[in-house]
Amino acid sequence: MITAIARRAPAASLTRLVFSRGYTSSLKEGSVAQSQGFSKKEKAHEDEYARRHEADLLRKLKAEIEAKKDELAKLQEKHDEVNSKQ
Q1: CA distance 81 to 72
Q2: N or C: more exposed end of the chain, with fewer CB within 10 A?
Q3: Which residue stretches, if any, does this entry annotate as coiled coil (predicted)?
Q4: What is the mean pLDDT of the chain?
């Protein structure tokens, strides 16, 4: 809330409008963002998102590891074939 207050400037004899900001201490305006319950709920949602994201990354990494293991087994078989022919 911005309020206009007419005051006399101390250094000059002219009257000036001085704008001052008056913030309300009431929790009625914008209280949702400041309330304790909201921040706990928001943190819970963020934590849940982080857990899901990390679980998804782990699934992808495990799939990549399995693919690399399969590739390594095929290469090992080829290597064994080449060495057995020599």
Answers
A1: 14
A2: C
A3: 51-85
A4: 78
